[in-house]
Amino acid sequence: MRSGWRTEGDGALPVAPRLTPAAGDLLAVAVPRLRRQRQVAQLLTRGGRGAEALESWIGLAGECLTEIARPQVLHLPLAAQPCGGAVRLGVGPITAGPLIAGPITAGPLIADPALAAGVAAGGQVHAALVTLGFAQEQAFARLGRDYAIHHVQSSLADEMLFALARTADRALLARHPGWGLHRIAVRTQEGCDGAPAWDAAQVQALLSLFAGGNPGVELTEAGFFRPLHSLLTLAVLRPDRVRASRPGPRTSGQTGGD
Amino acid sequence: MLTEEEKDRLFEAICDGDRETVVELVTKARDGGEDLGDLLKDTMIPAMSEVGDQFSAGEIFVPEMLVAARAMQGGIDIIEPILAQTDHEPLARVCIGSVKGDLHDIGKNLVVMMLKGAGFEVEDLGVDVSNEDFAAAARRGNQVICLSALLTTTKPQMARVITHLRDEGVSARVVIGGAVITQDYADRIGADAFGEDAPGAVKAVKRALGLAN
Predict the structure, then answer these.
(1) Which range marks the domain in which residue B74 is found?
(2) Contact: A147, B69; criterion CB under 8 Å
(3) Among A27, A93, A192, A201, which one is most buried in terms of CB atoms within 10 A?
């Protein structure tokens, strides 16, 4: 990545390193991953006019994203206050221990066993706001309102967003060598038909903690991020990382990492 | 005029996503005085229908459907301005949008492409569409309103749209679809039909209009 950490200087956030990788760097990861997606790979491998068309759309989608994407990650270390079996999160003084002295800005109360255990073990809670910083309508217009190319652009943007999120994780871990990162899902069981869904109210509460540092990411009333290609991750960093065992050999159908 | 062999080639070119050949043959048909309405109805729309059937059967996937739909669009772009000068009528007028609060357009866009390929005139209302905008689209003459929602959080909004449309006295048919939508849910909220995927949405629109069983 050409860009590194930058710390907010306007006092809006206590500690909010911002990462602004170049779109081209993310595309270098995203394009091969898109090409490896099973359905895409199948058509490309078959060849012919259809494959030629798809190849050219991937190129056009990449040019579009290079032009309009403004990728950035805003990291926010969060104060974590154990509260029964849950954890109250908020902006406040960050300490290495599980208990935070003094009041914290009201944040979401997350009932997640992994989060509670991580905080109890001295972990640090981090939220990261990850966005490609463009609206889909911008891309659609830039692509001449061509539905097929827009579809490929959207798939490519998905891969870019995931690449950006992985970059964010790596940057965080690089600042805490030897620590492990455990993702926390902000979920509710009260979705339609009782199916698990993310908890839009809690996500909104988390999002509000970014305050003035937020580069314009918001939630719709249904809990969707706007701009669409945005993520908010919640993770607990723990110093007691258990080393993973050696992964088994890859099968031919598996996609690789970046 | 195109020979039967050339019409077969046109059919195959659409199925294979060969836009160049589609444009070449449709241009030849236009320049040769072919009845383009018949060419669309008898050769091109059946080709897209075949693509839809192959997709629904799991024989091809989204990328193949995309290239086929875009090849088809290459032909439609030539035919449309000419048919617009005649009394040719589209199969029906359909509008589509992702419901309020939902910003996803991938599924909706696939349905737009397949509906156009099936001979419908489609008004794309975009994403995050308000109840009022759906009702206004019906008043503009759209006979079917297609509602798209990706996740469980926007599913209930479909019911609110239908209630709003009925309260407003809108008689247009309502078709719903999306990753988490089921026939049971469509029945519960009073939708006229449900499409389980993009080709299924085309069939659902036809069912809602009484054009298919």
Answers:
(1) 4-83
(2) yes
(3) A27
